Amino acid sequence: MQLTAMRALVTGANGGIGAAIARALHGAGATVVLSGRRADALRPLAEALGARVVLADLSDRSAVTRCVDEAGPVDILVANAALPSSGPLLDFEPEQIDRALDVNLRAPIMMARAAARGMRERGRGHIVFISSVSGKVAAPGTSIYSATKFGLRGFALGLREDLHGTGVGVTTIFPGFIRDAGMFADTKVTLPRGVGTRTPEHVADAVLRAIRDDPAEITVAAFEQSLGALLAGISHPLVASIQRRFGGTAIAEQIAAAQARKR
Ligand SMILES: NC(=O)c1ccc[n+]([C@@H]2O[C@H](COP(=O)([O-])OP(=O)(O)OC[C@H]3O[C@@H](n4cnc5c(N)ncnc54)[C@H](OP(=O)(O)O)[C@@H]3O)[C@@H](O)[C@H]2O)c1
Known about the structure:
Number of helices: 9
Low-confidence stretches: none
Order of helices and strands: EHEHEHEHEHEHEHHH
Largest sheet: 7 strands, parallel
Strand content: 5-15%
Number of strands: 7
Mean pLDDT: 96
Bound molecules: NADP nicotinamide-adenine-dinucleotide phosphate
Radius of gyration: 18 Å
Shape: globular
Oligomer: single chain
Helix content: 40-55%
């Protein structure tokens, strides 16, 4: 696929999945603008791709639309940045909840609003939201994260309908457990036998497919997580009892402990 002459803005570009997405878009010929909140973390990738960097802390409301403005007219927006926000609700301070809602949900909404205006005028563009299987299945220790990721799903589906027929596509991607790099891999938690993983490159491939084919949703997850996501739409209690039976609570506690510093 040739994305030559297209400009793509990727948020959270220094993260495990964001970097893979940026590399894939660059490899497909797009001009990539990398966004993140730390210049030093973005520099190696920016140099490797010859990409411009726009610094923005997405928990700072004034920085969110400024990020899109500074990127210039974009044909592709990949709203990827997020906090893991894992753990039981009662372990969160109010400002940590606000930060999660701002970075994971409010920022993608406001950035999509800012980017979609120009895309609609030019009659072309694609907005990709990186949600999570936690945007379809609620598990222990994911109340805040799932609130943001389910929210992103509803927003994206509604936005897709708003933009139908304008030449601007909207796709949401739902990764399951991702190995090698990213917020789950960073925890070093070992998953129970039978729980599979995918790679950041699988998610990046899904982004390219989203832009090419404009599906509403793509799940990038091992079979049992994809099935769980499907079943959860029919019966949450069924999926919750399966999770409990296979040790979901203990795994959730280990992941939350390892991610607590990222709140
Ligand atoms: N990894 C998985 O297993 C998995 C599974 C399902 C969904 N996802 C989703 O995939 C996306 C990418 O996650 P990842 O695994 O690549 O995680 P990651 O390596 O932790 O990357 C997250 C990115 O978001 C950025 N970010 C966090 N807070 C920010 C803020 N206030 N302002 C601007 N940027 C901020 C991070 O910047 P800093 O480096 O400065 O913190 C980092 O670049 C997320 O939407 C995540 O929810 C991941």
